[in-house]
Amino acid sequence: MDVSIGAYLDQLIGPLFDPEKRVFAGYLASAFLIALLVQIFFSGQRLLPATKTILSGKIWWSRSARTDYLITALNQLFMMGVAPRLLGKLTIATLLFDWLHIAFDGRPMIWTGAPAWTVAAGFTVALFLADDLTKYLLHRLLHRWPVLWCFHKVHHSAETLTPFTVFRTHPVDGVLFALRSVFTQAAVLAVFFFFLGDRVDLVSVFGANVILFAFNVAGSNLRHSHVWISYGRTLEHIFISPAQHQIHHSLAAEHHDRNFGVVLAVWDWIGGSLCLAGHRQTIRFGITDGTADHHSLLAVYARPLVEAAGCVGRIFHWRPKTMQFPAKAKTASLAAIIGGAMVVLALGVSAAGAQEKVLNIYSHRQPFLIEPFINAYKKETGTEVNIVYASKGLAQRLMAEGERSPADVILTVDIARLHVYADKDLLAPVQSEVLKKNIPPHMRAPNDTWFALSKRARVIAVAREVKDVHAIKTYEDLADPKWKGRICVRPGSHVYNRALVASMINADGMEATEKWAQGLVDNLARRPQANDRAQVKAIFEGVCDIAIINNYYYGKLLDSDNPIQREWAASVQLIFPNKDGRGTHVNISGGGVAKHSKHKEEAVRFLEFLTSKTAQDLYGAINFEYPVNPAVEPSETLKSWGEFKEDDMPIARIAELAPEAQRVIDRVGW
Amino acid sequence: MFSSKILHATAAALSVAMLSGPALADEMVYGPFPITVKGYDGSKTNSVSYTGQVARHTLHDSLKVLAGKGNGKPNADLKAQMMSYFEGKDAGRDILAPTSKGSFKIKQTKVDDISKKKNLAGKTFGGAITGMPNAMTGAELVSFWIDKASAADGGQDTANGYDYPQLISKFVMGAVFYNQVVDGYLDENLEADKKPNDKPYGEGAAYTGKEHSWDEGFGYFGAPAHTLKLSPADVYDIAKRKDDALAKADFNKDGVVDLKSEMVFGPAYYAAGADKGGKTNYLHTITKAFLDGRKLLANAKGEKLSDAQRAELKGYAKVVADNWQLVLAEATFKYAGSVYKDLAKLQTIMEANGDTDKALKTYIKHWGELKGFALALQTGKDNLGETATRLNRMIGFGPLLPNRSQVVDVDKDGNYLRDQGVSWGEYMLHMAKVQKLLIDEFGVKARASDVTGDMKDLAGKLGGKASAEND
After folding, report:
1. Could you tell me the sign of the dihedral formed by the alpha carbons of B155, B160, B166, B169, in that order?
2. CB-based contact B470 A152, cutoff 8 Å
3. Is residue A106 predicted with pLDDT exceeding 90?
4. In chain B, pLDDT over 70 holds for what percent of residues?
5. What is the model's pLDDT at position A3?
6. Distance between CA atoms of A515 and B278, rounded to whole angstroms?
7. Is B130 in Cβ contact with A400 (below 8 Å)?
8. Does B385 lie at the interface with A, CB-CB under 8 angstroms?
9. Crossing angle of helices A532-540/A551-558, nearest 10°?
10. In terms of DSSP H, where are the helices of A412-562?
11. To the nearest whole angstrom, how far is the Cα of B154 from the nearest Cα of chain A?
């Protein structure tokens, strides 16, 4: 915080020289001239008396005005400390700018052909409108919410009005106005810049928004004055006249909560708070809140805080209580805590001593999916299990760690990622009769380095209420031109789709698969995007009627805590394709033992556990996946979605065909 | 014609004077510097020599040209040719770049005309490159790219999103030139027991250990010896071999550009490129630090350097290292901005179902420059730690492609593996965040192609110094 005298003077006097501020000397001068003309031409005063009226000491040196000056001097010091700690508009604008990229999936530029001046004009007007509207809204809240009124009434406690009454404000009120400005400017800035790019500019005069400049030159300062200027019935529906704002400060009950607007009156008009000035009236300014003193520092700064606290207290029925805590009890608690800690420590030490079995897992599966298995395994074996979770980069990490790697077991969520480990020679061959018994040969590596642990079917989801799509029986059907514009699917390069294409190549050959993939792409309702869940959502929203998804996403949506997601799921039903032929394509989640594992036996035991009935049931219960162990039945829920025949091509073949599948996907632009 | 004769005569007279007497250094020019080696009995009068580094610049420039020569089919000959420029030390290699262009005549046409038996591979960063799959060493990565480039069409693989001339060139600028200087010549070689100043660099050499080491550092920077007499725009024009740049490059006025001392190469070109905007002064700052250090060495007159002298020299070395790092960071910043713009442009074309071919090529080229420089930045003396990790994750192993795929790995046969990448908008955001990271971590100032720069300027224009106000 810069508290040098120079900096303070700059903060205090700076606004007089800053055309962005209402009390800029030029605006004060224009207000004075306008006031003079009004006094001469409408009140019939001569020049000197008119000047005396405007600059009357009764107004400019009244108790109220002197308080204004003192508040100004103190508040500016306060703002020097607070302003740097407020959120900056650039910070908020950047956050919003970032968010817009995600919301619009990129940066769609609009009005690209529009001349720069129109963009600048649009921005300037939009900024002015947003600024004026949010001022109206905040001002309204300050009057209507009792807690906020406690602070805002400091401004209204002025009994004489001068242009400097604009600074008569409680710091809380001042901060709210400052934040409003920050958020409004940031929002307009980010939105305009995002859609229109560097053509956005501010039309300004002496650095100030041209519209506000015009407003200020036109005598904005007279709103806080005793000079009555009305714009007449019509214009006062559009612009707030000085007289209308003076009415806003009026003591009269019929004037309360009227004319919240700053420049535009339309907000009040729409909001039902507009009060036209009408004939000239004598208005008494100030507030009646049962207190006599409105000008002491205590009344200005402290009383609003106390009153606001009272307001909040009433809202929450809060009564401050003195907490009683007997000294004896404190001692007892302390002893209990220390004693307890020692017991825990002792148990920990003994447990650590007894704990010899350790297993370190590198997992691509999310923690919430793997933890139930770990807990069950710990319970069964007492093994200490540590997990490193990451969706990407684990193979690279394992490579970099080399022989020093602590990893014992690798768990992945599809064959492509599992194959990466095998390809990089990061897995150890495993000899286990249990694994051989529990996992069919086509579901494990020919060299026994990796093993499928669960199966997931790539199914077709169709709109429940759209009947013609229920006729789809095979993946091949999706290329039929009759589904043009009705299919949604995520990008082809995703491992799930690439595995499906590989299975198609295995079944139908390259040429037929490419033709099929092209037909599918031609039938898409939209550019391939997002994840499998988003495709179900698209069906729910009517974007398309057909989607390709992994079966468990359907289950997750059905089981979601979010009712909207449950509605998405309810809008579709699943088709298990090719069940009369080669069967539905399945992918796997799987695992292997790390090549440099220090606990190989334990690692094998864990894999064996994952193929046991206990764990295989868990796959179905937690993530709607099918058991890989033929001796274990799928869960009842899974069965209720439909029986299906599995395409039992060797899963390793999918990895082998992946490069060709990728080429097909690239060529058809999926 | 008459004036040209006088010019030549004067130049000749000057050359004779320089050859016959002790070398007199122009205060603003890197060399000649006198011979200070005690007991030197050779015929040389100038102790400055960095021909090996200039030769490597020509190997790099030539390799970049070759990397763009493929026709989309595997080409063993092309690969072998590239490897001869990268790894080989063969005699007779032509300088494929820079070559004469219009009136911009270059003196040398063969690498051997500059220095013999030089290669790049032997001087390439030996650490693991974590920004690409499989943690290859610098030389392994370049060799991998050379293999890919030989089979690419015009240097580009549009299916996976790689532009090999750009990747190779920008990476080598870091992995060879920058790394050799900041992690070698201007680092450990400044220690008392390394390359002593009271002994010749090698037997019979005309320069001391420290002198030559320092000169080699300057050579890798790639700036003309008379850089301090040139503006960044001049240096930029020389690198582009513009017709009117000959006069600016040809310092000794012999009518040709001597690659050994008058040409601009990669690092200096990018320093000048950043400085052209007028916000930075990397080119002159680095050159002056090299020159000041060299003057210190000349003034040491072949004696062992005192600790104070070495400390001063290390000060100059730090200026070089810090500013060189900034040059690489500025270039990374600039291309992150270019990639961002390319992504926006591609999005517009795709939404209009237009032809993306040209825009895609530009995008892939810019991404190659971005990736090359981002990796180059990581080949300095210090491990950039979290900054490197974030940079690598945001940029990825490959660019996000129009079908939303991105290279995520390379298998044991060298095939790229792709997967669905992040969304288009998120990848654009990554570019903006790369720029922010470079501002936060390196304090880049030139900030060419700043994604949010205009928004920052406009936010400043909106002013709004907070004061407690009401209405």
Report:
1. negative
2. yes
3. yes
4. 94
5. 60
6. 56
7. yes
8. no
9. 60
10. 415-423, 433-438, 495-508, 510-522, 532-540, 551-558
11. 19
Give B407's contacts (C-beta < 8 A, 6+ positions apart).
B133, B160, B161, B396, B397, B398, B416, B417, B418
Q: Which residues, 6+ apart, have CB-to-CB distance to A250 below 8 Å?
A: A256, A283, A284, A285
Query: Chain A within 8 Å of B343 (Cβ-Cβ)?
Result: yes
Residues 454-483 of chain A with CB under 8 A from chain B are none
Q: Residue B132: its chain A contacts at CB < 8 A?
A: none
pLDDT beyond 70 at A349: no
Q: Which residues of chain A does B464 touch, with a Cβ-Cβ cutoff of 8 Å?
A: 20, 89, 181-182, 185
Q: Are B193 and B213 in contact (CB under 8 A)?
A: no
**For chain B, what is the mean pLDDT?**
93
CB contact under 8 A, B425 and A14: no
Q: What DSSP letter does each residue of A178-229 carry, written as one string?
A: HHHHHHHHHHHHHHHHHHHGGG----EETTEEHHHHHHHHTTGGGGGSS---
The 3-class secondary structure across A85-109, one letter per residue, is HCCCHHHHHHHHHHHHHHHCCCCCC
- Nearest-Cα distance to chain B for A531, in Å, is 9
Q: Does A77 touch chain B (CB under 8 A)?
A: no
Least confident of A278-292, A337-351, B411-425: A337-351
DSSP letters spanning B186-207 = TTGGGSTTSS-TTSBSSTT-SS
Domain A456-586+649-668 in CATH: superfamily? Periplasmic binding protein-like II (3.40.190.10)
The reply to whether residue A107 touches residue B428, judged by beta carbons under 8 angstroms, is: yes
Query: Would you state the structure tokens that stand for residue B446, as one six-digit string?
Result: 């030139």
Residue A328 has pLDDT above 60, yes or no: no
Domain boundaries along the sequence of chain B? 17-459
Residue of B nearest to A106 (CA): B425
- The kind and range of the H/E element at A547 are strand A546-550
Chain B interface includes A396 (CB < 8 A) = yes
Q: Is B461 on the interface with A (CB under 8 A)?
A: yes
Q: Smallest CA–CA separation between A178 and chain B, in Å?
A: 6
Distance CA A358, CA A600 (A): 10
Q: Does B418 touch chain A (CB under 8 A)?
A: yes
CB pair distance less than 8 Å for A168 and B470: yes
- Which one of B418, B427, B436, B457 would you mutate to disrupt binding with A, by most A Cβ within 10 Å of its Cβ? B418
Q: Which of residues 157-196 of B touch A (CB under 8 A)?
A: 159
Q: Are strands A384-389 and A358-363 parallel, antiparallel or unpaired?
A: parallel
- Which CATH topology does A358-452+588-634 take? D-Maltodextrin-Binding Protein; domain 2 (3.40.190)
What residues contact residue A272 under an 8 Å CB cut-off, 6+ apart? none
Q: A366-384: buried (b, 16+ CB within 10 Å) or exposed (e) per residue?
A: eeebbeebbebbeeeeebe
Find chain A residues with C-beta within 8 A of B431's C-beta.
Answer: none
Q: Which residues are within 8 A (CB) of A480 and not within 5 positions of it... i.e. 6 or more apart?
A: A519, A523
Q: Say how many CA atoms lie within 13 Å of A510 toward its Cβ.
A: 9
pLDDT digit string (tens) for A530-580? Answer: 999 999 999 999 999 999 999 999 999 999 999 999 999 999 999 999 999
Give the Cα separation of B177 and B321 in Å (integer).
12
Quick check: do A358-452+588-634 and A456-586+649-668 share a fold? yes
Give the span between the Cα atoms of B360 and B366, in whole angstroms. 10
Max alpha carbon distance in chain B (Å)?
88
| CB of A163 less than 8 A from some CB of B | no
For residue range B394-453, what is the model confidence (pLDDT) as tens digits?
999 999 999 999 999 999 999 999 999 999 999 999 999 999 999 999 999 999 999 999
Which of B303, B292, B411 minimizes the C-alpha distance to B30? B292
Does residue B222 come out as left (phi exceeding 0), alpha (psi in the -120 to 50 range) or beta?
left
**Of the candidate ranges A250-264, A288-302, B82-96, B307-321, the one whose mean pLDDT is the lowest:** A288-302
